[in-house]
Amino acid sequence: RGCTDVVCCVLLVLAIVGYVVVGVVAWTHGDPRKVIYPTDSRGQFCGQQGTPNEKKPFLFYFDIVKCASPLVLLEFQCPTTQICVSKCPDRYLTYLSAYGSRGPAELEYYRQFCVPEFKNLQKPPIQVLKDKECPAMIIPSTPLARRCFPAIQAKKGVIMVGNETTYDDGRGRRRNVTELLEGAKKANVVLETRQLAMKIFEDYTVSWYWIIIGLVIAMVASFIFIVLLRFLAGIMVWVMIVMVILVLGYGIFHCYMEYAKLKGEAGSDVSLAELGFQTDLRVYLHLRQTWLAFMIILCIVEVVIILLLIFLRKRILIAIALIKEASRAVGHIMTSLLFPLCTFFLLCLCIAYWASTAVFLSTSNEAIYKVFNETACQFSGQTCKPETFNTSNVTKLCPDAQCLFAFYGGETAYHKYLIVLQFFNVFMFFWLANFVIALGQVTLAGAFASYYWAFKKPDDMPAFPLFSAFSRALRYHTGSLAFGSLILAIVQVIRVTLEYLDHRLKGTKAEMANDVGKCQGLEVCWRLSYPVLAPRNLPSLHSSHENNSFPSCFTPSLHPFAVFLLSSLPQPFTLFAFPGILAFFFFTHRIKLVQDTAPSLNYYWVPILTVIVGSYLIAHGFFSVYGMCVDTLFLCFCEDLERNDGSPERPYYMSPELSEILLKGNLEPSKS
């Protein structure tokens, strides 16, 4: 053995060093507080500990009517004074009425919504409003994303704020609250989304331990299933195939029963298009069209699976033989079942580094201040400096102009190339993530290849096959892994770009679906080269070529895709479907023995989907090892046919059980 693709190994090391430098620069200039905390008109953070605004977590707008949309407020500046407050106002009140009240309580309450420098309560109200030290009026508001928005609500189709339909604007005029709707009309959508998120969070708080129990059941079931595969592979495969068909059949039956039960009920015949998007997803379950769509989808999947089984029935024995051999290999290398945890940990590190670097890069801009003016002014929109603004010519020509914080940006060379650094951050994430995945695949493939090429199994195997394969991959093939992951990273960046362009050009003649499909096909073909790389001392490019050099064993009865499909897909599907069905009956109170134990939920689908997704990830983690084992054994079998002929001088390395199935009818009489 010798080191392969050394140049790519050096290139990877240099790229990692550059990535670390980018991270250090981003962490030096970035400030994540800009994402967490809202910013007032002076660029100060609301609610930040250790500052005068520590106990003032909410941002208050002097005149919310001047803001076009609350969604714009989350990113850009509204042309009105903004201050940090400890709480949002809960009443209608104008500064004139507060100043003219007999007691000081009203004015003291109002003063908390004025600028911090405002201390003189005896100052004439007209001068206070002219200097913009206090808002002309306050209205009942609710905090949303740490901003105070009008508490708009609809009662019997009438828009109201604080049970009022009109309000005093502080300048002697009564105005309709619908004028506030333009400044906060989209806040209701965000608020409903927030309420949906809160309900989902509440469901998690009362059902998290049941979810964990469901995931533990999935893990135990996966482990038991793998143990049973060691001894009952044929029976288990057939049982899994039948269970898949039965589960889909029950789903079709359940959808039909719900569809029939809703017949004649009021509102059940409303179409999904007429209903539109609803934050309360339970509404869709009261529509017949929803259950009809579910039933059609499940019927299509059921028919496809049955047709596949009919046409691929002869391959099932081959799949069973491969599963038996894979079970024996995994049984001799039990640590391979825990190895995906190592890959998962390294992927988490890549994701954490990428996410933190992206946040620091996006928050490494400087505060930009601009001139805001309610009337026509030639300086409106120009940058300014708050320290010298009051002594500049702007205030003389535009007396009511203000120098307010606008956004975070910058004009230095570093700020100009931030988009390039962000692109480099994304590219390096794809590269390192693919490298970690490739390292895990080559390690597993090398361990299982050492099992196959042991003439006397398991006596001729290394003492620690997984560790030996891992060390070989790092020592000899780091460059090849770097080269393969680099190709995948380039293809994935191109694919993501094409998918974005295809989404933007949807409906035009310039759609790029074919180009996206080509990129995905290239990714799949390149990943299949890793099982070839592990047992051979070949560079990545040669391995990808060698992956296509086994036509002699890819006969119709041994078509690899059919074999891999039958040997890999049923197990994870069934293992995550079983906990999902159990969770469905439990959380919908359909199990009488534990009917009172199940928690009351806003949306019962929240824990059910969590259990299904979590169970799938657990089953996929276990059976990804099986999938790599099947791939490796099959490719080693093809290599075995190329190198050997079964004679005493060149005997086959495959096990007798494997040769009995795979060699049956596929060799010439002399070789058989």
TrEMBL record:
Looking at the UniProt entry, the stretches that span the membrane are: 7-27, 208-228, 235-253, 291-312, 333-355, 428-453, 474-494, 573-591, 603-628
Domain of life, source organism: Eukaryota
What is an example of a Pfam family matching this protein? Choline_transpo
What is the protein's membrane topology class?
Multi-pass membrane protein
Keywords in alphabetical order: Antiport, Cell membrane, Glycoprotein, Membrane, Mitochondrion, Mitochondrion outer membrane, Phosphoprotein, Transmembrane, Transmembrane helix, Transport
The answer, when asked if Transmembrane helix is one of the entry's keywords, is yes
Tell me the function of this protein: Choline transporter.
| Family of this protein | Belongs to the CTL (choline transporter-like) family.
Can you name this protein? Choline transporter-like protein
Gene transcribed to yield this protein: Slc44a2
